[in-house]
Amino acid sequence: MSYNFSTGSLKVGDLYFENDSDGDTVIDFSEDTIDFKINNAVMVSLNTAGPQIRHSAISNVSNDTMGGGQVIYDGAGSLTAGQLYYMHTSSATWTAAKALPTGSEQALLGIALGSAVSDGLLVQGSFDVYSHLSGGFAPGKPVYLSTAAGKLQTIPPSGSGEILRLVGYCMSSTNVVWFSPSSTWIEY
Q1: pLDDT per residue over 1-19, tens digit each?
Q2: Phi then psi for 118, rounded to 5 degrees?
Q3: CA–CA separation, 99 and 157 (whole Å)
């Protein structure tokens, strides 16, 4: 449904965005449902059952820059797209995270979506880790904080003084992980 201001009547239809050259960004009004679509995939659906957040499969991904989910634009620091960072608790500066007692074991984690905080950091969602994942990739496999700064790994750290913190799981698309860091960790 859409509202026609000139006549005061309701009409069935969709809203398309003027500057969207391929016409695939849409707000779709139907009976009892409003769908927000990007690339014709439903990203958010509002209906009588309540809001539903949906993540579409990542396709045509360019290295280390594609992801979707909850993104924040807070803090300071120089970043590298695709690397894993933690927010330093005293300075609010994003620092490359690693599985050693540096503060990343308990702090807020985020994957850089660009070279600046203004590009955002993904704090939960799907992301193509491309060159920032070590170990064998397999759908459903756990992903951990790596012993290498800014990286992720599928092999759990277990050396003396290393930190074990689960940060997500491999998805069905190659190199794509569901990033959802645990708030708990273990130091060996």
Answers
A1: 444 444 544 555 666 666 6
A2: -65, -15
A3: 7
